Amino acid sequence: MPPRVTLSFDNGPDPEITPKVLDILARRKILTSFFVVGDKLRDPERHAIVERAFREGHWIGNHTFNHLAPLGVTLDRDAPALEIGRTQTLIGGMSHPDRLFRPFGSGGILDEALLSPSAVDLLCRDGYSCVLWNVVPRDWENPKGWVSQALEQVAAEEWPLVVLHDLPTTAMDQLELFLDGLDAAGATIVQDFPKDCVPIVNGKIVADISAYMPS
Length: 215
Ligand SMILES: [Zn+2]
Hints:
This protein has a single domain, classed as TIM Barrel (Alpha-Beta Barrel), CATH 3.20.20. Strand 1, helix 1 and strand 2 form a beta-alpha-beta unit. Helix 6 packs parallel to helix 7. The protein is built from 7 helices and 9 strands; from the N terminus they run E-H-E-H-H-E-H-E-H-E-H-E-H-E-E-E. The chain is of the alpha/beta class. Helices cover 32% and strands 14% of the residues. Zinc ion binds next to loops.
């Protein structure tokens, strides 16, 4: 088991699930990141939940506005401004200073559909950091049984950055079981991201991202 593990929660906020996740994290004194969907932030109740996460020390990142089509697939030329810029405006003062952005990867897959040249231009111009991942236990697909897969994937990475989803799939009913498993294995949960997972830092491209764009 690697010594450190980073956790992140995508696709929220959800009015039922996100508060439960926050309760668990607070009780166990764990800090994480929440990559939120802009369209959901327009609802004041959901916005208040993200405010709570921010107040409690979690990092708030941008996970597109619509979460419908990967940026490398959409033909809409305004997609970067709509998906990234509009969500960032809604996050406002809750944003992490590094302006964290996580692209929507269909099925959790890191491939050439992930980004587009125009999206990368916007990320660089506006000083974003692009936060990817290396562990996707597909909790949405297997809400009852994802924990064993997650622990297996975590054990295989030097510094795992795990993507979970605070969505109403019942998967988060197993969150404590996962955290117990990490505890039992002696892993420490840290909030920082492994460098390998952040190919754009404050608007600077620091790794080869050609695999994440249409050729
Ligand atoms: Zn997502």
